[in-house]
Write a structure and sequence with these properties.
Blueprint lengths: L10 E3 L2 E3 L3 E3 L8 H8 L5 E8 H5 L3 H6 L10 E5 L3 H13 L5 E6 L4 H4 L11 H15 L4 E6 L1 E3 L2 E2 L1 H11 L3 E5 L13 H10 L5 E4 L5 H11 L3 E4 L9 H9 L14 H19 L2 H7 L4 H4 L7 H7 L5 H9 L39 H10 L7
Parallel strand pairs: 3-4, 3-12, 4-5, 5-6, 6-7, 7-10, 10-11, 11-12
Antiparallel strand pairs: 1-2, 8-9
Helix pairs in contact: 1-11, 4-6, 6-7, 9-10, 11-12, 11-15
Length: 388
Amino acid sequence: MTTAIAPARTLRIGPIELDAPVVLAPMAGITNTAFRRLCREYGAGLYVSEMITSRALVERNATTMRLITHHESETPRSIQLYGVDPATVESAVRVLVEEDRADHIDLNFGCPVPKVTRKGGGAALPWKLGLFRDIVTRAARAAGDIPLTVKMRKGIDSDHITYLDAGRIAEDAGVAAVALHARTAAEFYSGQADWSAIAKLKEAVTSIPVLGNGDIWSADDAARMMAETGCDGVVVGRGCLGRPWLFGDLARALGEPDAAAGPPVDATLAFVAQAFRRHAELLVEFFDDEGRGCRDIRKHVAWYFKGYPVGGELRASLATASTLAEIDDLLAEMDLAAPYPGHAAEGQRGRAGTPKRPALPDGWLDSRDLGAEASCALADAELDHSGG
């Protein structure tokens, strides 16, 4: 239940005006077309793709080309790019613009995953100020009229904070908005996000929207973040796992009167089961393969039914179902009249973990300039053909 309600507002990112100041954070293996469509069915916002590797896009990797394909119902189309080489990122942006594949492009400078930071990417990259400036400036120029935004973290660790410098550089480069996950790479997803950093970034970056990210588990959290930090909108990641209707709650709390797709949710087990089934159906459509779609929904089982009276055996069966008919039969076994369990279904979901020392290229922290060894690490990073 939402208690702290912010005044209704929109969010403008370049020429794009959103009926609610809400953005879905890119999450690998999660924010594919199926999940984005599902979230959109509940509320307004900007729904961003999984992180796409710039090199793989330029080389037209088949998996990557599938990931950047939007359903006809998705408007505006939003894609997040990851890259460490200015020329490659610029080329990737040109592909999206010249082939009319996106209405909004986001650059990832916030990923804390070791395989990314080890090569100087993600949250590690803004430490190299010249490299960061070059990537963002060239990407913004290549984007032209398509709004380009930046998502970042506070820094690498508490001794190597980068977000204020990066925010000012991005603003000067002509980006349309900046978003801050208020943790360092070292914190990963542990502890509590430092919302005061979002407020400081808002004070430092004054001509474009500043969006806040971190520990938004409910519409109340989002309204409180905006009230406490003065940020212009929120970016929601783990809080919507197994709870795509959160975007309806957010739209009702923060957006225009008609921003939500329906009335407030009474999240009975029947409602949750219906959302789970719809998600599975959209995954089957996305993959064009019933078996693969049913396999992909398995990782969502624990998130959807958190706190609900769904026994371990039934959960395990859902996590092995291979057809929609099997899923239907299993959902029918539930006590669908069970009411919303309250606190048991609230709070943190998804990965958290513990703080860890970030993996970085050798000598990365010795200077904020890009040396020869760091350049070699970046060259290796751009050989990544993962497809995102």
